[in-house]
Specification:
Elements lengths: L1 E2 L6 E2 L10 H43 L6 H15 L1 H6 L15 H35 L13 H26 L15
Antiparallel strand pairs: 1-2
Length: 196
């Protein structure tokens, strides 16, 4: 193991002496965790917004007999924002489906290989998804694409929530890989969680 010259902490053999200090890595980890908290807060706000929009539509139709055009599209945007903003925090808490049927029957070395393979594959797929989500936002912005429904909202606005969530999801997998490289557990396993 290589020692950091500043804090004397050891690093696994994969790192070189040019590896950043553990304190810097811890500070980056704290920054990423704050990003996850911000995104889950935005997911909560989006969920409440979806509830309010649906309630407003129901009240408008039942009480005033007025159909407010575009409310269903805005409710859909809010629900999509909720889902994408919550992706990294759901991953952190082990709330995504993780099939452990095979992993539980493997030995320690084989399990580690399979988990590394899963993390790397998930990082590649989430990075690919993030790239195309950001690209979709950019294309909608430069082509002035608008929603085909009655609201006629520029599509880059709701797509931006999807892109932010996808980028944070890819960052969460990268954070999990760095944590695994540093030899610490990344997933927070709650009661009844499948994450270990």
């Amino acid at each position: 193991s290589v020692r950091c010259p500043r804090c004397r902490a050891g690093f696994p053999f994969l790192f070189t002496p040019f590896t950043p200090c553990v304190r810097l890595a811890s500070a980056m980890g704290q920054l990423v965790r704050h990003l996850y908290r911000l995104l889950i807060g935005l997911a909560c706000v989006s969920m409440v917004a979806a509830f309010v929009i649906v309630l407003l539509g129901i009240l408008a139709r039942q009480v005033t007999f007025i159909d407010i055009q575009g409310l269903d599209a805005y409710a859909g945007y809010a629900i999509a924002a909720t889902l994408f903003f919550a992706l990294p925090t759901a991953l952190l808490h082990g709330d995504h489906i993780r099939v452990t049927l095979v992993l539980d029957r493997l030995g320690a070395k084989a399990r580690a290989v399979f988990e590394w393979g899963g993390l790397i594959a998930a990082q590649l797929l989430s990075g690919y998804l993030a790239w195309y989500a950001v690209r979709a936002v950019w294309l909608s912005y430069i082509t002035h694409d608008v929603s085909p429904s009655a609201d006629a909202t520029p599509l880059w606005i709701p797509q931006l929530c999807m892109a932010i969530g996808c980028v944070a999801f890819a960052l969460a997998f990268l954070d999990a890989i760095v944590a695994r490289l540093r030899g610490r557990e990344w997933f927070i396993a709650g009661s009844g969680s499948v994450a270990e």
